[in-house]
Amino acid sequence: MKQNQYSIIGLMSGTSLDGLDIAFCHFEQTNDKWEFSIIESKTYPYTEAWKRRLQNIENESALNFVKTDHDLGLLFGEKVNAFLTEFNLDNTSIHAIASHGHTIYHQPHLGFSTQIGNGAQLCASTGIKTIADFRALDVALGGQGAPLVPIGDQLLFEEYDYCLNIGGIANISSQQNAYRVAKDITFANMIGNHICQKINQDFDDQGKLAKVGKIYPPFLELLNQTVTTSTENNSSLGKETFVKHIQPYIDQLKISVEDQLHTLAHHLSDKIADNITSKSSLLITGGGAFNDFWITLIQEKSSAKITIPNHQLIEFKEALIFAFLGALRLNNSINTLSSVTGARKDAIGGCIYTF
Asked: Helical H runs in the chain?
């Protein structure tokens, strides 16, 4: 049954393993236009033990994989309950939790994309209706199951020519005539954070390390070729490509961390500039929006009119949009665009768990 107001908690766990983003959001539809507000938000960092577990789970046994799915669902529920308590929220006023889960396998060419963080456990732990597994139906329809965020870009941020999110993977969406189109551009924080681990840092704060380095052409060529090959026939990138082709190369590189990060910055900004038209309006969100050196290079190479929103929207836009996907699911409205994913048709994705 359709209604015009929804209060949803959105959960997002990204490939950069920073933690679980939780955003309590309100949506209201008036005259076919959706308005939103992020009421409360917080990131719950993963412990080092959980980071190690999620980094390596694809290499574990089936039994350990299933147990991790179960345990992560319990962890998500624990964090949502802590969030409700901290912000004094009444769970009876929340229509649903919409959880992206944490992507482990993304191989749509083989017919699957797998996100763990068991929705049934999350529902049982919180007592709140839970929507999860947003990608599966699209993949079953022949799509990539990704990106899913562009419908939120289309309906919530239509004033921008392009919406760019720079997280573990950088992805972009735009409107072309009557259709929304989108794609993953390249790996971003997934590479940068891995490089920074060499010097026991989590990330390159504001791009200060990258700024003082110089380009190392062989690394730049490797990044360009790997990403170009991986995206020739797909609109989405998976962790598998990074682990197989990029991580081993980085691990044996002898050049300075500064040079590695500088080279990544030019690769990333080149790829972004290649995907936008000059002087267009560009909204940038995700952790990469805090990397001043990246933003400077994107500005120089694209001449775009860049908007960096407030910190809450930068950090929680994906959690916001997954909350929105949940609202659309409850509204029985399309929340997955075939023009973006390549599926045979648009779909209403997400499995609902409720008592």
From this structure: 48-56, 62-86, 119-126, 136-140, 150-156, 189-196, 208-211, 217-231, 239-241, 247-252, 257-274, 292-302, 311-330, 338-341
Strands across the sheet containing 351-353? 33-45, 19-30, 5-13, 96-99, 130-132, 351-353
On whether both 71 and 193 belong to a single domain, the answer is: no
Handedness of CA 234, 185, 97, 107 (dihedral sign): positive
Report the CATH number that the domain containing residue 299 is assigned in CATH: 3.30.420.40
Phi-psi region of 206 (alpha: psi -120 to 50; beta: other; left: phi over 0): left
Which range of residues forms the domain containing residue 82?
Answer: 5-145+318-353
Does the pLDDT of residue 234 top 80, yes or no? no
- State whether 55 and 86 are in the same domain: yes
| CA nearest neighbour of 182 among 135, 144, 217 | 144
pTM: 0.90
Domain count, the chain: 2
The pLDDT tens digits for 105-161 are 888 888 899 999 999 999 999 999 999 999 999 999 999 998 899 999 999 999 999
Taking a C-beta distance cutoff of 8 angstroms, is the pair 9, 324 a contact?
A: no
